[in-house]
Amino acid sequence: MYRRNITIEYLFIMVCNLDLTRGLWMIYLAFRGFTLMQLGIFESIFHLTSFLMEVPTGAIADIWGRKLSRLLGRVCFLISLLIMFYSSSFFIQLVGFMICAIGYNLESGAGDALIFDSLKLDGKDIIYMKIAGKRELTYQSAAIIAYLVGGYLATRSYPAVFSISMGLAFLSVVTAFFFMEPILEPDQPHVPRPIFATLKEQTVKSVQVVKDNPRIGFLILFSELIFTGITTEFFYLQNYWKGMGYTEFMIGIIFAVSALVSGITGYKAAKIEKRIGVSGVLVMMPIFLIFCLWGIALTPLHMVFYALTGIIDGILIIAISDYINRLIPSEQRATILSFQSMAFSFLMIIFFPIIGFIGDTFSLETSFFILAAFMTVLCAIYLIFGRSLYGKSSQKDH
What we know:
The chain is mainly alpha-helical. It is 82% helix and 0% strand. The protein has a single domain, classed as MFS general substrate transporter like domains (Growth Hormone, Chain: A, Up-down Bundle). It has helices at 4-16, 25-31, 36-64, 66-86, 90-121, 128-154, 158-176, 195-212, 214-243, 248-267, 269-298, 302-325, 333-361, 364-385, 387-393. The chain is globular, with a radius of gyration of 20 Å. The model is unreliable at 187-192 and 393-398 (pLDDT under 50).
């Protein structure tokens, strides 16, 4: 009955990620006269807001519905686009980034939860990784189009970039209406309760689930540490390549290649994971990340090494999502998945301004070197002390 959500999900993912401003917003706001320090503040306030709002928005999805949460998330994104394009005020832009972060929060846990629970209710949750792989391919296909079209249009007309993105954001709001909400407890009557008491209870229960199963926390910290390194490179490479004389279209091509690599590996993630196993994924991905970060920092082939990080994205997003979903109950699924995004925001709050400060004070080349060194130390610590936990994680619950 809920299988229809899968088809709608592919369309929803495609429309949501045809955002032509991705990979360009830092360049656009710099063009509008905002300084690098202000851009750093925008990104920091985004992640600070995301850090503070992740659990409440995850609880909203668990209590009042995944469909409603995703719909509200897309409305917030549309509002943030309007503010980014029209406002020249630093403080209004700050508000726009806060709204954008809340929209991201509303979607982050609710999306995976809606799909996993739809499959679970139809007795098809065993194929989740396969479905997630197709989602990732759809996501990256949309990203490729967005990078190429957005980069090309940006060399001619930023108003066209934002107008098309706003239209597609509105279409994503419409698409969200067609999801069918998974009914997790059909026989349990709804008893109205105070909102804050309900949110508190949901959060306490979710925290207890993580405390009772430390593998969940381990998988969350492991994955978000890696994604933080890749995302930090993504943002600062934009300005680095722009400073080297590359146009937005050329930068878009580089990001499109990375998205293509990620889409292909994501689509094949289930087969790759079956071949190398859970421990293989959890050991090989941080090692490969270190290899790519040092390639960016020390060689002139930084574009090639950045494109190769798409392999990590493609495999890890699918595998970690599957591992975590199998360890948590449906009633706390969106809330606990929001812990994952919360961890990412916390790490970005730390990493992003430090790397930016080093880039401003010395050079972006120096910041890439420092990032590679720091991530090498963190990944080494993980590989040494996380062995007992990822060894336990290798036995998946099917």
